[in-house]
Design a protein that fits this description.
It is a single chain. The chain is α/β, with parallel strands linked by helices. Among the domains are: about 110-165, Oligo-1,6-glucosidase, Domain 2 (Oligo-1,6-glucosidase, domain 2, Alpha-Beta Complex), CATH 3.90.400.10; about 480-550, Golgi alpha-mannosidase II (Immunoglobulin-like). It has 17 helices and 22 strands. It has helices spanning about 10, 35, 40-45, 80-95, 110-115, 180-195, 220-230, 235-245, 265-270, 305-315, 335-340, 345-360, 390-400, 405-415, 450-455, 460-475, 475-480; strands at about 15, 50-55, 55-60, 70-75, 95-100, 130, 150-155, 160-165, 200, 255-260, 280, 290, 295-300, 325, 365, 480-485, 495-500, 505-510, 515, 525-530, 540, 545-550. It has an eight-stranded parallel sheet with strand order 11-10-9-5-2-1-15-14. It has a five-stranded antiparallel sheet with strand order 16-17-18-22-20. The longest helix is centred in the middle third of the chain and has 16 residues, at about 180-195. The protein is globular, with a radius of gyration of 23 Å. The two termini are about 35 Å apart. The relative contact order is 0.10. Bound molecules: 6-O-alpha-D-glucopyranosyl-D-fructose (ISL) and calcium ion (CA). 6-O-alpha-D-glucopyranosyl-D-fructose binds near residues 257 and 331.
């Protein structure tokens, strides 16, 4: 039985690129592979190791590439397979790795499997998806899509409904069918044989459906996700089969994206003895504040809730499993806007959050632009938004009587386009992202916040990341050391220890706009890294972050 082991994917740091928004090389307004290639030295200099690319396959882009119509082809707007090979080689030359984002819970409705499937009830591809007759003149059950509305779409050709947990252009694949699984494993093998270093697997806990398709008894979307959509009866059988048949034959990493994976079931996916995935992105802290109707139906939550979740998850994993640590990605607001203060303390709080992500136990994942301190965008018009989730809910909420202005405020807080605006390279038009018209407007704050500026400022967020990434590389305690939360008087402080035979480190974070006192005795410790200048031992300035090492 495999127990706690060392692995490169525990030691390295992931950096997520959202290719559409990273760098446009040809002026069509869409980020592309050659754009990424032009920034390889930038990434290497920052000191990140593993590049995760959001999907770059052929896609009608209903959900920006998470609706794949051909898993073997690069979307022409991103470039060619030759560009991809060059990108992969360029990363490997620089000692970095590449992981691909694969979406196997669903395909695009324009995938050839679905095009055949929808033609007749007797088509050999019919069972590649889930088709059901309606009930009482409506859909087969009350399941709701993640993006609003029913999860079933009526198709007039065969007078049946098909299942889509996301948009109606993302029909769910039927993993019960062995031919679907074989087709998927072939795709996995194709990319691994090209020499990539692993996968991020989109919504992997959703792949096994509860086949009675009973109504969800739950009001809240999150509860339905956890108890009805996720963790279905055969999910582990399927992931294990993929591991046995394909994954285990390669030196790679896998990270499963896990809506609905609670800490109670986390180890079933990533336990070292499971033969399934190396790690998961659990979304518990990301879903905090989501009310019964999801992210645009906010409910209050506190920093204490965030800390509790982190501590509980670490305890649940212990030395038996592994997670990735992150505070944002392409689906959630900017970390500095959500968990920091993107106004008076943007610099300090962005650095504090960097220290936090790089010192908790798990493989850190940094989303593009965090190293610049990029923050949420506040467009005034719904027209400026591109995300289908935002548009679907806009329709749903305004039809129910919410004013467009009120809905836009919710989008400013929680919309996915907050993180999808162009990467801010410099203060020229469109943030230096494109010479054309960008597919989504740049955040107007690019004049102040951009990579040219941070690179010229020794005190910038960028250099804090760079320094800390280098420190983490040589400090294995931050990787393999035990994690122990330390109780504090103020719930605004987050204090924890990382410890092994080599070192005893204490991280002290003041997650607030206020001065806080910290009475923990650290007289035997040396202050090693600090995000701002302050010589008072037991007084922490707003958003101050410190790392101590025992003498
Ligand atoms: O942001 C969310 C919805 O409000 C999340 O629930 C998100 O939809 C969920 O985590 C699944 O996300 C993944 O699959 C989606 C895709 O749109 C997301 O971009 C992807 O990360 C469907 O493929
Ligand atoms: Ca382009």
């Amino acid at each position: 039985m495999a127990t706690f082991t060392k692995a490169w994917w525990k030691e390295e740091v992931i950096y997520q690129i959202y290719p559409r928004s990273f760098k446009d090389s040809n002026g069509d307004g869409i980020g592309d592979l050659r754009g990424i290639i032009s920034k390889l030295d930038y990434l290497a200099d920052l000191g990140v190791d593993i590049i995760w690319l959001s999907p770059i396959y052929e896609s009608p882009n209903d959900d920006n590439g998470y609706d794949i119509s051909d898993y073997y082809k690069i979307h022409p707007e991103f470039g060619t397979m030759a560009d991809f090979d060059e990108l992969l080689a360029g990363l490997h030359e620089r000692g970095m790795r590449l992981i691909m984002d694969v979406v196997f819970n669903h395909s695009s409705d324009e995938h050839k499997w679905f095009e055949a499937s929808r033609q007749s009830k007797y088509n050999p591809y019919r069972d590649y998806y889930f088709w059901k007759p309606g009930k009482n003149g409506g859909p087969p059950n009350n399941w709701k899509s993640f993006f609003g509305g029913s999860a079933w779409e009526y198709d007039a050709t065969t007078e049946e409904y098909y299942l889509h947990l996301f948009t109606k252009k993302q029909p769910d694949l039927n993993w019960e069918n062995p031919k679907v699984r074989e087709g998927i494993y072939e795709i996995v093998k194709f990319w691994l044989d090209k020499g990539i270093d692993g996968f991020r697997m989109d919504v992997i806990p959703l792949i096994s459906k509860r086949l009675d398709f009973a109504d969800s008894p739950y009001e809240a979307l999150n509860e339905t996700i956890e108890k009805i959509y996720s963790n279905g009866p055969k999910v582990h059988q399927y992931i294990n089969e993929m591991y046995e048949k394909v994954l285990k034959h390669y030196d790679i990493m896998t990270v499963g994206e896990g809506p609905g994976i609670s800490k109670e079931v986390g180890l079933n996916y990533v336990g070292h003895d499971r033969g399934e995935l190396n790690m998961i992105f659990h979304l518990d802290h990301m879903f905090l504040g989501h009310g019964p109707l999801g992210k645009f139906d906010p409910v209050p939550y506190s920093w204490q809730d965030v800390k509790d979740l982190i501590n509980d998850w670490d305890a649940a994993m212990g030395r038996s499993g592994w997670i990735s640590v992150f505070l944002d990605n392409h689906d959630f607001p900017r970390l500095v806007s959500r968990f920091g203060n993107d106004k008076e303390y943007r610099l300090e709080s962005a650095k504090l959050l960097a220290m936090m992500v790089l010192t908790l136990r798990g493989t850190p994942c940094i989303y593009q632009g965090s190293e610049l301190g990029m923050s949420n965008v506040h467009f005034d018009s719904i027209e400026d938004y591109r995300d289908i989730e935002t548009h679907n809910y806009y329709k749903e909420f305004t039809e129910r009587g919410l004013s467009p202005e009120a809905f836009l405020e919710l989008v400013h807080e929680n919309g996915r386009d907050n993180v999808r605006t162009p990467m801010q390279w410099d203060d020229s038009e469109h943030a230096g992202f494109t010479t054309g018209t960008p597919w989504i407007k740049a955040n107007p704050n690019y004049i102040e916040i951009n990579s040219e500026k941070v690179l010229a400022d020794k005190n910038s967020i960028y250099y804090f990341y760079q320094k800390f990434l280098a420190y983490r590389k040589q400090t294995k305690t931050l990787i393999y050391g035990a994690y122990e939360p330390i109780a504090t008087e103020s719930d605004k402080l987050f204090v924890y220890r990382r410890k092994d035979k080599e070192a005893d480190l204490v991280i002290v974070l003041n997650h607030s706009d206020l001065v806080e006192s910290c009475n923990i005795d650290l007289s035997e410790y040396r202050l090693e890294i600090q995000n701002l200048e302050n010589k008072m031992a037991q007084v922490l300035l707003p958003w101050e972050a410190r790392l101590y090492r025992k003498l």
